[in-house]
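// run 5 | inverse folding | seed 20
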């Protein structure tokens, strides 16, 4: 089973937020199904949190099953950090001396889960405090196997809300829609982090990624630019990884005045999609179109050679 708890809190007394519930609704909708409509996570959406006790109770239930493949917890709301560096997610019943649930406690709960993967995604101020030891003896700060943390900002930073959305979650949503998908159409936490990290740049809040995993995990599947069946054609097009594929005008339908060569045109469409994802490049030209028109060729890129080898070895 793949189980996700998605929490968004706007209604804080004296410190109301505007976009957390909306962000949680969108994240929940994306996690619920893959892009093709197939089931993905069993999602519990919780946007009416009132107390620390009720939120802690549902977090415990999220991470309590032995046979789950993934337990995921997403939180959008206020975060806080103490002078000692201990982080908290804030609940609406916060007081000066008890602001909410300790990030260390959430990490400990996740670490004790028997699920194969335990994922915590935080969009709140000081989110990066999770997993950062505040004292040497604090074993809760160290990641158990299978734990992944994706945080919106470093422990010393605030997380920005803009135009009714969290900046971090806005990018997370785009990543889940396919912006961070790999060649197979899988959206992994590592790719999400890379996508957000590059988008934010050096002068914004810095996302944090921490993990102790032995195998990558996909959070959502989207339609790949090149299907696996098409990907395996690399061996047909390039019998050796260093061999070039010759082109001529019959591969580009706009150049032919005679009966189109449907087979070549179909092959060329696949090669162009392969170029889009960095597997193939024209030789001596910037675009495949001109390589075909001018009777040149195309070849595998370094990435293309990597996937050629995977296919050759029966890994794809």
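// decoded
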């Amino acid at each position: 089973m793949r189980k996700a708890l998605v929490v968004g809190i706007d209604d804080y007394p004296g410190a109301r937020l505007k976009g957390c519930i909306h962000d949680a609704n969108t994240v929940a909708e994306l996690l619920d199904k893959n892009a093709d409509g197939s089931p993905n996570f069993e999602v519990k959406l919780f946007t009416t949190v009132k107390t620390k006790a009720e939120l802690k109770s549902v977090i415990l239930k999220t991470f309590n099953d032995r046979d789950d493949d993934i337990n995921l917890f997403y939180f959008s709301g206020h975060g806080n950090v103490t002078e000692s560096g201990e982080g908290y997610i804030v609940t609406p019943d916060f007081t000066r001396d008890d602001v909410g649930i300790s990030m260390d406690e959430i990490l400990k709960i996740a670490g004790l889960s028997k699920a194969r993967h335990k994922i915590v995604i935080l969009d709140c101020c000081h989110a990066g405090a999770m997993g950062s030891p505040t004292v040497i003896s604090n074993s809760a700060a160290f990641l158990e196997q299978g734990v992944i943390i994706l945080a919106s900002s470093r422990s010393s930073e605030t997380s920005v809300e803009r135009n009714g959305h969290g900046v971090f979650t806005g990018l997370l949503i785009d990543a889940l829609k396919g912006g961070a998908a790999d060649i197979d159409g899988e959206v992994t936490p590592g790719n999400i982090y890379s996508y957000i990290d590059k988008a934010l740049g050096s002068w914004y809040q810095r996302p944090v990624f921490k993990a102790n995993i032995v195998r990558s995990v996909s959070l959502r599947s989207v339609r790949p630019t090149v299907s696996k069946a098409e990907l395996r054609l690399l061996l047909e097009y390039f019998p050796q990884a260093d061999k070039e594929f010759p082109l001529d005008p019959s591969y580009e339908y706009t150049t032919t005045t005679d009966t189109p060569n449907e087979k070549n045109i179909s092959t060329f469409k696949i090669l162009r999609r392969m170029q889009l994802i960095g597997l193939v490049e024209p030789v001596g030209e910037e675009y495949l179109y001109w390589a075909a028109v001018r009777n040149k060729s195309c070849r595998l890129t370094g990435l293309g050679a990597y996937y050629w080898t995977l296919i050759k070895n029966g890994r794809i």
